[in-house]
Specification:
Helix content of chain A: 25-40%
Distance between the termini of chain A: 46 Å
Structural class of chain A: alpha+beta
Enzyme class (chain B): transferase
Strand order of the largest sheet of chain A: 2-3-4-5-1-8-10-9
Shape of chain B: globular
Strand content of chain A: 5-15%
Number of strands of chain A: 10
Strand order of the largest sheet of chain B: 2-3-4-5-1-8-10-9
Radius of gyration of chain B: 23 Å
Strand content of chain B: 5-15%
Largest interface: A-B, 42 and 55 residues
EC number (chain B): 2.7.3.2
InterPro entries (chain B): ATP-guanido_PTrfase, ATP-guanido_PTrfase_AS, ATP-guanido_PTrfase_cat, ATP-guanido_PTrfase_N, ATP-guanido_PTrfase_N_sf, Gln_synth/guanido_kin_cat_dom
Order of helices and strands of chain B: HHHHHHHHEHEHHEEEHEEEHEEH
Largest sheet of chain B: 8 strands, antiparallel
GO molecular function, one term (chain B): ATP binding
Structural class of chain B: alpha+beta
Oligomer: heterodimer
Number of helices of chain A: 13
Protein name (chain B): Creatine kinase S-type, mitochondrial
Helix content of chain B: 25-40%
Largest sheet of chain A: 8 strands, antiparallel
Shape of chain A: globular
Chain lengths: ~375, ~425
């Protein structure tokens, strides 16, 4: 499709007249986008017709929150990150801890490289989970894809996943064909995703044509789950109850590698490059796109004044058990890696494993009324 | 039809623009579309129209009823001069399957040319929505001579308030689903400039949404003037809320009887209202205000979007023609309980709503009664129809109060003879 206002009349209008008013905004895009940058980049578009205005619309429509820094921009295709690097490189640098345009990202999906992780204390760790995303090269991303493209992605994904066997063998549930029973089961399993309601997602166009070509695939064991055409082409999740993160990560790596080779037999590959790693819709998910975490009971530690500092030093992040933007319930936290880019998958899951072990030790100390000062880690 | 660019050359600020742009921008414009053209061809081969045809099997809206695969295939690759596509017109209807009882329109225009280039689908939707008005064969007549209206003073023991609204679009600028920030700001500039030229009882002031003080905001809420960022997915899926609240605002006269909304669902929504039952005066002010504003924009080389097929061009096909909804808040405690109430309204070609507006319920036997039709009859004819109809309803109410019987009136004709 053609970008809005690309007729002759609109090109003739001054760039300044198009410049968004970001004076009340607090997101990465608003921090980075200058008048000059806007003037320079608005003339460009990717081969599929994605423009600067398309990239930033979500950030213009959602001024943000004084405490939470959102990204404020999305990619419409793989090329976006190249054509609009003037904007996206500084956004990436800001969001990913100083990651430079010349830096290289390392991918490591060999689960044998993870040390330990099979023995997180099940009295504290209730569940373990690793997720990432993958995009299929040659197709536009969710903010920009047409219905035809989205359906092609679904078809490719379902074919690929259909070839998985062993403990990965599973079934696809298309959102628009689901029976009421299937729907209820998926809700009870906490697998079902809903039409996005967050204005951050809707404003970028990811909710278009819902629920066409959206669906959920999971293995019969319910430990490996793939979301199709939600916020990314594919979101891949490995999970299980308890603290055996090593097993979760091994299944994660095995599954991803198998899916990738199945795609290759059909002449398709994932979007990836050695600078940005795996390419996903939101710049915040570049690199590994990996969030590995646990639901862990830390009722004492979470009330301790040094909790936040410990997490920061360990490069970990806390969330409520409902996921991003939810509050903790009953002292149970979702603890996961804060980074996505600049560290490999193995490195990030290692940080989670080692970090959570330490947090549990601290919790045990506080249970006994002892100090945790000597346990405070150095900055990773 | 003159292209958008050449229309710009013929009027407004030409010399200034050309001087600053030079021929470089023209070349850039051509070059850009050349580069894109090849890529567009590749994609259309990979994804033929049939692969993009929306799944409308669970949908209940006018667009879904008429968008056949054949029409979609024919129109998918067409673009208006400003780059608007069929997919963009229908996105709101694809995203909002509708309700079994309420049939929405399911598509919007991005610009004036949408109605021409995509006429295969728009004409069918217009015909269904406007109860048989056929844009291919019929003409719409505009008449804003309020002196022609008679019996326009209602019994104020029944009629609490009177109101007439419509919309106007500024030719040459894209409509709210499609407009860029610059176009939207231009709409705001042109409209507010014209409104600042209004005098006498029409003199007033503009309140820009981004600059409103808290007191101004509260006062506008208390006056029931303030509009909010759209939350209805019918509107947000059509892209009308982009960049909110940039270039949106409210203008009203000091008497608070003439109100303009800028860049909400249309370029402008024009509302004339007052407490009580003097519909004649409300309509007189409505016509006078509209004509004054039109004159003021014409002085600067602008005009409203209008043609004799579709009348005034607005974003939603449901508002074509006059775009006019004339109505009253009227107490009808007896009549509203009579089983013949709906039939009477139907025959009078009137519509009832709750006093909160569309999709609200009536409160305390007070109804919002307004004209059903928008196109095929002029403004004068529609307002007269409302006046005659409401007078009839009040007459019925009075009879029922005295336990006298009432009659269902014969149906009034829909289109002018």
């Amino acid at each position: 499709r053609m970008p809005r206002g690309r007729g002759m009349a609109s090109l003739a209008l001054y760039s300044d007249q198009e410049l968004p008013d970001l004076s009340k905004h607090n997101n990465h895009m608003a921090k980075v986008l200058t008048r000059e940058m806007y003037a320079k980049l608005r003339e460009k578009q990717t081969t599929s017709g994605f423009t600067l205005d398309d990239i930033i619309q979500t950030g213009v429509d959602n001024p943000g929150h004084p405490f939470i820094m959102t990204v404020g921009c999305v990619a419409g295709d793989e090329e976006t990150y190249e054509v609009f690097k003037d904007l996206l490189d500084p956004v990436i640098q800001d969001r990913h801890g100083g990651y430079k345009p010349t830096d290289k990202h390392k991918t490591d999906l060999n689960p044998d490289n993870l040390k330990g992780g099979d023995d997180l204390d099940p009295n504290y760790v209730l569940s373990s989970r690793v997720r990432t995303g993958r995009s299929i090269r040659g197709f536009c991303l969710p903010p920009h894809c047409s219905r035809g493209e989205r359906r092609a992605i679904e078809k490719l994904a379902v074919e690929g996943l259909g070839a998985l066997d062993g403990d990965l063998k599973g079934k696809y549930y298309a959102l628009k064909n689901m029976t009421e029973e299937e729907q209820q089961q998926l809700i009870d399993d906490h697998f079902l995703f809903d039409k996005p309601v967050s204005p951050l997602l809707l404003a970028s166009g990811m909710g278009r044509d819902w629920p066409d070509a959206r669906g959920i695939w999971h293995n019969d064991n319910k430990t490996f789950l793939v979301w199709i055409n939600e916020e990314d082409h594919l979101r891949v999740i490995s999970m299980q109850k308890g603290g055996n993160m090593k097993e979760v990560f091994k299944r994660f790596c095995t599954g991803l590698t198998k899916i990738e080779s199945l795609f290759k037999t059909k002449g398709h590959e994932f979007m990836w490059n050695e600078h940005l790693g795996y390419i996903l819709t939101c710049p915040s998910n570049l690199g590994t796109g990996l969030r590995g975490g646990v639901h862990v009971k830390l009722p004492h530690l979470s009330k301790h004044e040094k909790f936040g500092e410990a997490l920061k030093k360990l490069r970990l992040q806390k969330r409520g058990t409902g996921g991003v933007d939810t509050a903790a319930v009953g002292g149970i936290f979702d603890i996961s890696n804060a980074d996505r880019l600049g560290f490999s998958e193995v490195e990030l899951v290692q940080m989670v494993v080692d970090g959570v072990k330490l947090l549990i030790e601290m919790e045990k100390r506080l249970e006994k009324g002892q100090s945790i000062d000597d346990l405070m880690p150095a900055q990773k | 039809m003159a292209s958008t660019f050449s229309r710009m050359l013929m009027g407004r600020r030409t010399a200034m623009l050309l001087a600053s742009l030079g021929t470089g921008a023209l070349a850039t414009g051509y070059l850009m579309s050349d580069v894109n053209h090849a890529a567009v061809i590749d994609r259309t081969k990979l994804f033929p129209p049939s692969s993009d045809y929306p799944d409308l099997r669970k949908h209940n809206n006018c667009m879904a009823s008429h968008l056949t695969p054949a029409i979609y295939c024919r129109l998918r690759d067409k673009l208006t001069p400003s780059g608007w596509s069929l997919d963009q017109c229908i996105q709101t209807g694809v995203d909002n399957p509708g309700h079994p009882f309420i049939k929405t329109v399911g598509m919007v225009a991005g610009d004036e040319e949408s109605y021409e280039i995509f006429s295969d689908i728009f004409d069918a939707v217009i015909k269904e929505r406007h109860n048989g008005y056929d844009p291919r064969t019929m003409k719409h007549h505009t008449d804003l001579d309020s002196s022609k209206v008679t019996h326009g003073q209602f019994d104020e023991r029944y009629v609490l308030s009177s109101r007439v609204r419509t919309g106007r679009s500024i030719r040459g600028l894209s409509l709210p689903p499609a407009c860029t920030r610059a176009e939207r700001r231009e709409v705001e500039r042109v409209a507010t400039m014209a409104l600042s030229g209004l005098k006498g009882d029409l003199a007033g002031r503009y309140y820009r949404l981004t600059e409103m003080t808290e007191q101004e905001q509260q006062r506008l809420i208390d006056d029931h003037f303030l509009f909010d960022k759209p939350v209805s997915p019918l509107l947000t899926c059509a892209g009308m809320a982009r960049d909110w609240p940039d270039a949106r605002g409210i203008w009203h006269n000091f008497d608070k009887t003439f109100l303009i909304w800028i860049n909400e669902e249309d370029h402008t929504r024009v509302i004339s209202m007052e407490k009580g039952g003097n519909m004649k005066r409300v309509f007189e002010r409505f016509c006078r205000g509209l004509k004054e504003v039109e004159k003021l924009i014409q002085e600067r080389g602008w005009e409203f979007m209008w043609n004799e097929r579709l009348g005034y061009i607005l974003t939603c096909p449901s508002n074509l023609g006059t775009g006019l909804r004339a109505g009253v808040h009227v107490r009808l405690p007896h009549l509203s309980k009579d089983p013949r109430f709906n039939k009477i309204l139907d025959n009078l070609r009137l519509q009832k709503r709750g006093t909160g507006g569309v999709d609200t319920a009536a409160v305390g036997d007070v109804f919002d009664i307004s004209n059903l039709d928008r196109i095929g009859r002029s403004e004068v004819e529609l307002v007269q129809l409302v006046i005659d109809g409401v007078n009839y309803l009040i007459d019925c109410e009075k009879r029922l109060e005295k336990s006298q019987d009432i009659k269902v009136p014969p149906p009034v004709s829909q289109f002018r003879k």
